[in-house]
Design goal:
The protein is mainly alpha-helical. The chain is built from 14 helices and no strands. Helix content is 78%, strand content 0%. It is globular and about 55 Å long.
Length: 321
């Protein structure tokens, strides 16, 4: 009887430990904002493959260097989402109450520790690799993210819609593209720096998409942003107007991408670039008609759809040659 009772108590403790561990693991997963993390890992990986010229470049050394490049980028992506959650706990209790810090599933101290660790490890790895463009790209990313989120004098750029949009455009549109491309081209493949047609295409398209995302990302956060004085475009101009501008901007971007593709010297690249972007534009227009701006769930679903388009674009950039 005694042995049975002791075993039962041990089993209960084990189940309790396993349950608590799994809960913390799920909270950590949600804390990293996986949609953002996945999108940025895909973006960085794709940009790193852009300087490749032939299959001979796909050496074990390249894959090792690619891994060493993606890891600090992923850590910086986690820092980006984490610092925003730490600073916006009160706002998120209104806008995103399911996030681990806002819901209380994750201790603030643990969030601070993870945030600082990711930032320091990312910067340290970027500097230790010995590639100036990679190091400066990560430093620029860190500065923009910190200036966007942190509540200090002259910072907290997210309070100003224009500064927020500019920081997102520079970070996503220019900083990531050039720093990682040049790092791979010069410091991994050992070639002179050449600004290619595909890099110009990628920078232009992603910059425009980033601006559209900067407009659309706050549509479902209007209530909390109003209460805490965050003057986003959605707060100042209204949901409907911002939604229309964001969608039209994406449609124009896809039209310009198709026109760019029409001037490709390769027939295959020309066909894929034109047909794919026309198809995506049509699908985007159809999907936009289904959005109910009075329902935050509908708006958030559409924003997640935009993230998927962002990821798809990073697959298509390799045909813009």
């Amino acid at each position: 009887m005694l042995l049975g009772r002791v075993k039962s108590e041990d089993d209960n403790k084990l189940k309790s430990f396993q349950g608590g561990f799994l809960k913390n693991l799920k909270s950590l997963y949600r804390f990293t904002r996986p949609n953002t993390l996945n999108g940025l890992v895909i973006a960085v990986t794709s940009i790193c493959c852009l300087p490749l010229q032939n299959l001979g470049d796909l050496t074990p050394t390249f894959f090792m260097e690619l891994f060493k490049t993606v890891v600090p980028a992923a850590l910086m992506a986690i820092y980006m989402t984490a610092i925003n959650q730490l600073v916006d706990v009160k706002i998120d209790k209104i806008n995103k109450p399911d996030l681990p810090l806002a819901s209380g599933d994750f201790p603030i101290k643990t969030g601070v520790a993870i945030t600082l660790t990711c930032a320091m490890m990312s910067l340290a790895m970027g500097i230790m690799i010995g590639s100036p463009p990679l190091a400066w790209g990560l430093i620029l990313w860190f500065i923009l993210v910190t200036a966007y989120s942190i509540d200090l004098p002259f910072l907290r750029w997210k309070r100003n819609a224009f500064l927020a949009a500019i920081s997102i455009m520079i970070g996503y549109g220019v900083g990531i593209q050039f720093s990682f491309f040049i790092h791979i081209q010069k410091y991994v493949l050992g070639r002179p720096v050449v600004i290619t047609r595909s890099l110009i295409f990628t920078t232009g398209v992603i910059t425009c998409m980033s601006l559209a995302k900067a407009l659309l990302k706050d549509l479902h956060d209007v209530d909390g942003d109003k209460e805490y004085g965050i003057r986003t475009f959605s707060v100042m101009l209204g949901k409907e107007r911002v939604f229309r501008v964001g969608v039209y901007m994406l449609l124009i971007t896809y039209g310009a991408a198709a026109i760019f593709g029409a001037y490709s010297s390769s027939l295959l690249s020309k066909l894929i670039t034109i047909i794919s972007h026309c198809a995506i534009a049509s699908f985007l227009w159809f999907r936009a008609q289904m959005v109910d701006l009075s329902e935050n769930a509908s708006i958030l679903s559409f924003y997640m759809f935009i993230w998927k388009l962002y990821e798809v674009e990073y697959l298509l950039i390799h045909f813009a040659r």
